[in-house]
Each structure stands twice: as structure tokens, then as C-alpha cells.
Amino acid sequence: MNKQMLGRRHFLRTMTAIGTAGLPIVSIFGSRLAFAAGAAAKTAYDPAAKFELTVSEVDMRKNSAGRMLKARIYQPKGPGPFPTVLDLHGGAWNAKDRTAEEPMDRAIAASGVLVVAIDLTWGKEAPYPASIQDANYGVRWLKSKAAMWNGDASKIGVYGSSSGGQVAELLGMRPHDPRYNAIALPEAPHVDATVAYVAMRSPVSDPLARYKNAERLKRDAMMQNHTIYFNPWESIHESNPQEILDRHEKVTLVPFLIMAGSLDDNVLPEIQKKFVESYKAAGGNIQFELFEGAEHEWVATPGPLTVRAQEMVKAFIARQLKG
Question: Does the pTM exceed 0.85?
């Protein structure tokens, strides 16, 4: 055995020991993370694989309202390291938490993916851009912690639902925005918030169009959720993924998957289709799938359409990891 192989084996043993001890690998090894990520990327992902899971929770950070934002970790049992996905929940920017997408999170994780679902600040605690800042911080935090849970931090993806989809779109399109990077991560100051891909179910790709739809349907609660989160109201334009593309802003175009229900009267299918065409026109790689007979939150109900959505997300992840 040559010196190079011995050195590599010693480094991997050291990395394993540190992960077991629960220490942040990024802060200890710094640039050596690139080597670890390169080794991890060689692990093949099979979307048809089946793994048992260990589910745990940890504190992430306290938000400005004093609420502890937590992370739920779905860790496959196996040698790994596993591809890593951050989940961003929906709830019209004012409700729900890290548990909202548990069926999808479990399905993805059971195929051999480390899935970490995080809480986001509600609009009633702090308006835009607070939840985007949480997501940006969450990506950096997860990159610095993934190895502790046998995850590969080299190509992190995102899954976002409904309003969490709007957060995910902004996260993917503006990973270096100084407003979104506002929360420091002292233990990993040089880790950025870039992501490799984003998969979404019923994302709010055009919040203003959604508001107008709620207004037409006289859904006062939905309208109020918008006015609470987008405060001042003008921010609904600045933070609108559709309008960002319409303004031809310079954005990062990572691969997107959008799954929409044909019966969704919350975020209308035509809103999604317009965003898809705009993303393509900007040069982005985007896959759009319309689920006939599905409403806004169909993945919360067991059935063939939910299984199809789960399989679609796993297949999308597999394609991104091959690239």
C-alpha cells in the first residue's frame, strides 16, 4: 500500500472519529472539506433503494421572536455518505413547521438521502426576508453539519412546498444576496448558500397572482397571510420569483422541478406554467409536471398520486446527482 493510500485512509478514519464525536468538521478541517466531499460524491444513489431510518431533532437557532427553530433529521441507516436535501415547509408563511412534509421527507430519506427539515420564521414573527434568511442560514448550517449525520455536503438539494417553494426559489436564484446572508455562521464563515437543485410541490411562484386569486375567491385569511408577510406591501414585488424573471434580473439558474395539481385553486396551474416558461426563457433547466385530479396539498394524503410525486422527486434527485 503506497503513502497516498495510507494518508487517505488515515484522513477518513479521522473524519469518522470527529463525526462520531459530534464536532463540526468544516470548522476543524477548513479546506479539507473539499477532499471529503469529493470522496463522498462517489457514492452512487439508487432511487429504488430501501433504507431504515433514524429520526432525531436538534436545535438550529433562535429567531428574532425568541422561538427556537429546530431541525428534524431523517438519517438512513447504512455506510453512506448519503446525498443531502434540505426541506422547507409551507403554511402560507405564517404556519406549520419542520413536520409538515414528513411523508415526503420519509420517502426521500428511505431511498438513501439524508433529509433535514427545518423550521422557518413565520411572517407574524418577522416579515420577509426573515424566512429566506432562515433558509439561507439552513443551507450553510447543513453543509457544516451533514458529515455528522453521514451526509454528503458537496451537492445539497432543496425540497420546498407551497410558500416554502417561494422561499426555495429565492434561495436557489439568489444564493449570494447580502440580505439573505445576513445571519452569520461563525463556525463555518466561508461556507456559502449555493444549492445544486430545487424540487417543489405547489410553489408560490407568483405571490401577487396568488393574492389576486384569493381576493377573487374572497379568502380573507389567505389575503391576510400575504399582507402580514409582505410588510411593507411593496416587498411582494421585489421578492416575487415571477417578477424577478420578468425584470431580467441576474439570477442563479439551478435545475428546478415543479409539481402542481390540476385542481389547485390556491396556486393556479396557469401561474405555475407562466413561471416555468419564464424560467426556460431565462436559460434555466426546469421540469414541470401537472398531476391530474390533484389539489394544492395532495401529497399529504396517501394514494397513487402521492406515491407518484415521491417517485418523481427521487428520480429528479438521481438525475441531478449524475450531472
Answer: yes
